[in-house]
Design a protein that fits this description.
Blueprint: H1 2-6, E1 19-23, H2 31-42, E2 54-58, H3 63-72, E3 77-81, H4 82-90, E4 104-120, E5 135-137, H5 144-155, E6 164-166, H6 170-178, E7 184-189, H7 194-202, E8 205-207, H8 213-221, E9 226-230, E10 241-253, H9 258-268, H10 271-280, H11 302-311
InterPro entries: TRAP_TAXI (IPR011852)
Protein name: TAXI family TRAP transporter solute-binding subunit
Length: about 325
């Protein structure tokens, strides 16, 4: 740290880490490569990035693990679904009875993670209400998906006892669907997702719309949801499907210095980072300055907020 202070870098080295870790997800998912692009962009090297900062993307078990690491001080920042970040900050949902992570703050909302309700083509499921009595996987206990699935079911007047609930991860659920042992399953993630694309091609699927007054009520009640649409032919043979999404978000702790987070946010939205995101990953193009301040289920970090006000995207 002394060397950094002596180098006269542009933010208070005494308060700020030289290293800024970004907790991501598994190496096969979307969080990890996006995290790598962002870490590379904000690292101070030559005339780019935040001078004196070394940022790294770290593989992890995803949203909950990242929030726990930020809370415990083993990560400076991380990616999380907007629903999980909201539950952590408010002590609800997955964090019911576990206490609030009150220091959790938002740097930027990144891109939508779409709620897919994947059904067997011949299962006759046209609406969420049609899931009654059907064999449906709502993911494993402890996952963000299971909490979202229960919210969606409740909006359409159903509970877990109204369906034949299975608790499987999306991969095994897709295999069971193909074999005829399952009628539908919930999956939360960016489209197109490889496993569903493969299922659509090999077995044929339908995507069940999550729309209408029930969806509108969810959107007004839960600020971490947004309207979303899966475009036609994203998955073979599946038409345009209205649904809802949560957002992938980059979160940090209120303990991180305002100047540091301001500088990081400023670099995140410069032209060089824009070019790197556009070229580096299919989801990169969806990460925009306009979307950065949407799905605000938790407070913005004051450093990020200052930048967004200067940039004119926040009043």
């Amino acid at each position: 740290m002394i060397g950094l202070a002596a180098a006269g870098i542009g933010f208070a080295a005494a308060q700020s880490p030289a290293f800024f870790r970004i907790g991501t997800g598994g190496t096969a998912g979307t969080y990890y490569p996006i995290g790598g692009l962002i870490a590379n962009a904000i690292s101070g090297a030559g005339d780019k990035g935040v001078q004196g900062l070394v940022a790294t993307a770290v593989a992890s078990n995803g949203s909950v693990a990242n929030i726990n690491a930020i809370q415990g001080g083993s990560m400076e920042s991380g990616f999380s679904q907007s629903d999980v970040a909201y539950w952590a900050h408010s002590g609800t949902g997955l964090y019911e009875g576990k206490g609030k992570v009150e220091d959790l703050r938002l740097i930027a909302t990144l891109y939508p993670e779409t709620i897919h309700l994947v059904a067997r083509k011949d299962a006759g499921i046209k609406s969420v209400a049609d899931l009654k009595g059907k064999r449906v996987s709502i993911d494993e206990p402890g996952s963000g998906t299971i909490v979202d699935a229960r919210i969606v079911l409740a909006a359409y007047g159903l509970s877990e006892s109204d369906i034949k609930a299975e608790h499987m991860k999306p991969g095994p659920a897709g295999e069971r669907l193909r074999d005829g042992g399952l009628d539908a399953y919930f999956f939360v993630g960016g489209y197109p997702t490889g496993a569903i694309s493969e299922l659509a091609t090999s077995a044929g699927i339908s995507l069940v719309p999550i729309t209408g007054p029930e969806a509108d009520k969810m959107l007004s009640e839960y600020k971490f949801f947004s309207k979303d649409t899966v475009p036609a032919d994203t998955y073979q043979g599946v038409g345009e499907t209205p649904t809802i999404s949560v957002a992938a978000q980059w979160v940090t702790s209120a303990k991180q210095s305002d100047d540091l987070v301001y500088n990081i946010t400023k670099v995140m939205w410069n032209d060089a980072t824009r070019a790197a995101l556009d070229a580096g990953h299919a989801k990169g193009k969806m990460i925009t300055l306009q979307n950065a301040v949407t799905s605000l289920g938790i407070p913005l970090h004051p450093g990020a907020e200052r930048f967004y006000k200067e940039a004119g995207v926040l009043k």
